[in-house]
Write a structure and sequence with these properties.
Blueprint: H1 3-18, H2 22-30, E1 32-39, H3 49-66, E2 75-82, H4 88-100, E3 106-108, H5 113-126, E4 130-132, E5 150-152, H6 157-171, E6 175-181, H7 188-202, E7 206-212, H8 221-228, E8 234-238, H9 241-253, E9 262-266, H10 286-293, E10 296-301, H11 307-322, H12 333-354, H13 362-369, E11 372-375, E12 380-383, E13 392-400, E14 405-413, E15 418-421, H14 431-434, H15 439-445, H16 458-507
Parallel strand pairs: 1-2, 1-3, 3-4, 4-5, 6-7, 6-8, 8-9, 9-10
Antiparallel strand pairs: 10-13, 11-12, 13-14, 14-15
């Protein structure tokens, strides 16, 4: 062999060894699970990297130390990227693949619907499992095509809709008003109400829907409450805790807390950022709020606590505080969910490896994440056949109006579809007055007294004829004007229509949301 060829061969072999080539390197590569975590850097989000990262690393460390979750030699390599709440998640994924020339083995996140939609499509195309404690909108429930590789480890909004459906059946209700704030970029309350709306619509429930922007300087809570009086007497609300309190105070002052209305508040994500049912603020309105809240019940995730959960909570709290974050809720639904996502993936991967497949068989791994129950950090986690976590929820109500004591009065177990009311629960509303017929709708939507016209006079007939002639003339003029300038207008707007179309596709159509059209 010529010396120059021998030298070149040595260089190639050395480079391959440095890159992990060879049997040993290939085996190490096969056992290295590359995880890309896509979450916002901004700590304004409840699911920011600063809040969730300690939980993910806690799960990975426990799997490594216990040796029970992964086969020998396997290890996780975690990479964190800022997803923001939009396109950046997709860009981060594509940039990483382009730079490293390899795809991740697992995607964790994103959470925001508009960020998750394009990433989920790409995950399906690349055959990469995607686990998230977000992407909770109803549109992501269609797993047959573009979202086939998405598994949701937190209860989707439609699961909460199923819980409310069971609650309504318990009370024999079939009408509701949905009231929500649509003010933040991730639109959590909008998508939460969409989930409820989809489930109720399938049951042909009659619904009135009202939205408002709680950040607007022009928001008038009294107007919001007056709008409720034109709808149904069972009101489901989603907004911040302070806004819910202001709505209940306004409802109390307008005489709506006397048994004629039932109010339900959705506490999203086990976080007090969304109304957690607390009426106490230490201000002059506390006494009035206590009376109003006796007619409010709060829907929240069922809280089950294992001994290990306390250790987990303390460690997460310590890690988050070191980053300068000090708050009431260190462990919320997202923190728990992403911890449990690591456990679920480890279980699924282990089963896939045992039957002869590899970490690159993403579809096989996704199938193993579904239709199974396992132990999460706070209790049992059950994933249905569609890759969505069953939701267990509680209803909190005021059990002692004098003291203002609030307690759990009912629990819903999603896997069994069972709603259990605690014994000796007394409801503040009158069931007879809440079961209404169609006549009440017309009563509130037709506030203007009807006046008999007594027939049309001669002047009215003349006016109609003249108006018709003028209208016909204007219509013909508009037709010729439009025909003459149509080409110019189309040329001017071609680029604008293209840009607007792309924007709509990315923002609204990306999640196949039907709520706004309903």
């Amino acid at each position: 062999m010529p010396p120059w060829l021998l030298g070149s061969l040595c260089c190639v072999l050395a480079a391959r060894a440095a890159l992990g080539g060879g049997p040993a390197g290939e085996e190490e590569e096969e056992k290295l699970i590359r995880v890309l975590v896509l979450l916002p850097q901004d700590d304004a989000y409840l699911f920011s990297l600063g809040r969730v990262r300690p939980a993910i690393e806690y799960a990975v460390r426990n799997l490594r130390e216990s040796g029970a979750g992964l086969l020998p030699g396997y290890a996780f390599q975690l990479t964190y990227e800022d997803s923001a709440c939009g396109n950046r998640a997709l860009f981060s994924l594509v940039d990483m693949v382009a730079l490293q020339r390899r795809r991740p083995d697992l995607l964790l996140g994103p959470v925001c619907e508009y960020a998750a939609a394009p990433v989920a499509r790409l995950a399906a195309h690349w055959d990469v499992p995607m686990l998230s404690a977000g992407a909770l909108a109803a549109g992501f429930g269609a797993k047959g095509g573009e979202y086939s590789h998405l598994t949701r480890v937190a209860p989707a909004y439609a699961k909460m809709g199923e819980m409310l459906l069971a609650l309504f059946r318990h009370h024999q209700w079939n009408r509701a008003t949905l009231l929500y704030s649509d003010s933040n970029p991730e639109r959590s309350c909008y998508f939460a109400m969409e989930g409820v709306h989809v489930v109720f619509q399938e049951e042909a429930f009659h619904m009135a829907v009202h939205s408002f922007d709680e950040t607007s300087r022009h928001l008038d809570i009294d107007d919001v409450v007056r709008a409720l009086q034109t709808g149904e007497r069972v009101v489901i609300m989603c907004a911040s805790g302070d806004t819910i309190r202001n709505i209940m105070l306004a409802a109390h002052r307008q005489g709506m807390t006397n048994g004629d209305y039932a109010f339900f508040n959705i506490e999203l994500f086990n976080s007090s950022s969304y109304g957690n049912g607390s009426w106490r603020r230490g201000d002059k309105h506390d006494l009035e709020a206590k009376k109003a809240y006796s007619y409010l019940q709060t829907v929240t995730l069922l809280r089950t606590v294992k001994p290990e959960f306390e250790k987990f909570s303390l460690e997460v709290k310590s890690s988050v505080q070191k980053q300068g974050l000090h708050e009431d809720d260190y462990v919320n639904m997202f923190v728990e969910g992403f911890h449990d996502a690591i456990l679920l993936y480890a279980l699924a991967l282990q089963e896939v490896l045992k039957i002869g497949f590899s970490k690159k068989d993403g579809e096989k791994i996704v199938q193993q994440t579904r239709n199974r129950t396992y132990e999460g950090i706070a209790g049992q986690v059950s994933i249905d056949a569609n890759g969505d976590r069953y939701g267990d929820f509680s209803v909190i109500g005021m059990t002692d109006p004098e003291a203002g004591t609030q307690e759990v009065i009912g629990d819903y177990f999603g896997k069994e579809g069972r709603f259990e009311i605690r014994p000796n629960v007394k409801y503040p509303w009158s069931h007879g007055r809440l079961r209404l017929d169609e006549s009440r709708v017309s009563e509130h939507t037709n506030n203007t007294p009807c006046k008999s016209s007594g027939g049309l006079g001669e002047s009215a007939v003349t006016g109609i004829v003249v108006g018709a002639l003028l209208g016909a003339g204007l219509l013909m003029a508009f037709y010729f004007f439009r025909k003459k300038y149509r080409i110019t207008i189309e040329r001017r707007t071609q680029q604008e229509d293209c840009n607007m179309g792309k924007h709509r596709q990315l923002r609204e159509d990306s999640i196949r949301s039907h709520f706004s059209a309903a």
